[in-house]
Amino acid sequence: MKTLYLDCFAGIAGDMFIGALLNLVPSHKILTEGISKITALEPSEYELVIEHADKNGIAGINFDVKLHHEHEHEHGHHHHRHLADIESMIYSSGLNERIKRESIRAFSLLAQAEAHVHGTTTDKIHFHEVGAVDSIIDIVGAFILMDALNWPRVLCSSINVGSGLVKCAHGVLPVPAPATEYLLHGLPIFSSGSPMERTTPTGALLVKILAGGFCTLPPGKIMSSGYGLGNHDSPDMPNVLRALLIDSEVKDSPEGLIQEKLALLECNIDDMNPQDYELAGEKLFASGALDVWSENIHMKKSRPGVKLCCLCEPGMTSKLAFIILQHTTSQGVRIHELDRLRLKW
Length: 345
What we know:
Blueprint: E1 2-7, H1 14-22, H2 29-35, E2 46-55, E3 58-67, H3 69-74, H4 83-91, H5 97-118, H6 133-148, E4 153-156, E5 159-160, E6 162-163, E7 165-168, E8 171-174, H7 178-183, E9 189-190, E10 196-197, H8 201-210, E11 213-214, E12 220-229, E13 240-248, E14 251-252, E15 257-269, H9 276-286, E16 291-298, E17 304-312, H10 317-327, E18 334-343
């Protein structure tokens, strides 16, 4: 199994994500040719910039979208796109179905974040920066590169959001900005380094959509790696995102079996409606659990109870434990590391 590990020690933005992944694919043409399939985007509107550079002495790829503002001025207007407009652009493109589906899901979530901030509904949202050409390219481009990598499992570190104030469409506000903060709900964050916005709405969105779990560096063999460079300078911390493509640590036994590391989550419950276990199980399976089951047990004073069990990959323990605590009456989850032998699939 291939794992893409995002090391967000200095934050994450859409251009940083694309820059990092461009180090991992065989050719930059995968991105440029993929973007050209969005036929509703006129080539005269933008230029893709891909260049090798360094940030605080760290070599990586700088990705940027240069907008041709004179194109807008010639037509006497600026583009204001609704969610339906963006969905139509993506649907009509020549991209494959999975890229279309993930891109539309991402923009729908982004519209929810903007609607929450404005106190309105998604159909009334006029996208600001996030609906502009550069963000359409950042989001769709991210999924083009994920497709080129054959959609590896994605794990992520805790996310450095930065600190201080940021100037946005709503005025000067504290970091993280409102839409970013909404998208970061349920994700592990921290703040480090000199004051600046280190995680953008697009960066938070990509983590929210792609990451299957949050952990330190997972075990395995590093196959390739790269840094995506950001647009800010910080003397104490390079504004970069590190991406590592890892061959997960599995080994063949002499009998032709595969041995791998897994995690077992479990909790004891004696005060929950039995019908609610099915919903909890569905949520866990939908979020990547390998198996979910329940066992009848006897608790204190011989009270009948249920032990809810969930088998998963080690990097997904935090995400799935949170779902268990959300959808059951348990106040805690036990985590066991274990080895599994299985047949080759």
